[in-house]
Amino acid sequence: MVRVQAGGQGFAVHSKRARTFMSTFAIKLIAVVTMVIDHVGLFFFPGVTELRMIGRISFPLFAWLIANGAEHSKNTTLYLKRLAILALVSQIPFFFANNLIGVDPMLLNVVFTLALGLAAIMGTKRYDDTPTRAVIIGAFAFVAQMINSDYGALGVLSIVAFSLFAKYPKRLIAAQMLIFFFPAIAIITEFFMVGAREGLYLPIGWMAIFALPIILAYNNREGIKARNFFYIFYPLQYVVLYIAKVML
Prior knowledge:
Blueprint: E1 4-6, E2 11-13, H1 16-21, H2 24-44, H3 49-55, H4 58-72, H5 76-99, H6 110-124, H7 130-146, H8 152-164, H9 169-180, H10 182-198, H11 212-216, H12 229-247
Antiparallel strand pairs: 1-2
């Protein structure tokens, strides 16, 4: 029998399989792999929706990693600075690569959203009263939407939800369902009412909820130490995508 226990920032699932695979590193690796699958689909196989659907699993995993990092980091201010620098550095290859496929040139990469989510968590930890926390969360979500960062307000809300409900699995699942799944209902309804004849596509953002079983299987262990892996990999992938897209 598998028993779910709240432990720190995340959930330790006491099973041999979970202890073996669902460390922080394992979750980070799955996040990176699904992100790459998503980007390969976006850049080279735009007609293969399945690749983009798999890619929706990536963001909630990164959102959880930010919340988990905020809980265990010895210096969250330094953590935030590293994310901010990564966001700025990554924007250059992100812009040039996405420009090749006609993505909105004003779109900011997802690390801006991750940084804003971390900043929101830091803000909520300074206050105990719910109204103040709600204002802080709303402010950072609003900023993410206004600066047009990838995943925008929903991304910030997802990150903060992982932090606030870390010890409450049912509430966490409900919150993430509200963020990623239920907004799609309105779009799906619109599709069947008017979208089909206007050439609209069914939304795939709801696929993000399939990241939850992975997160719930977290064993509260770090696993292989690879703190700087994402900081190098994220901007580098856009350099590779740009070169490959130009050559092909």
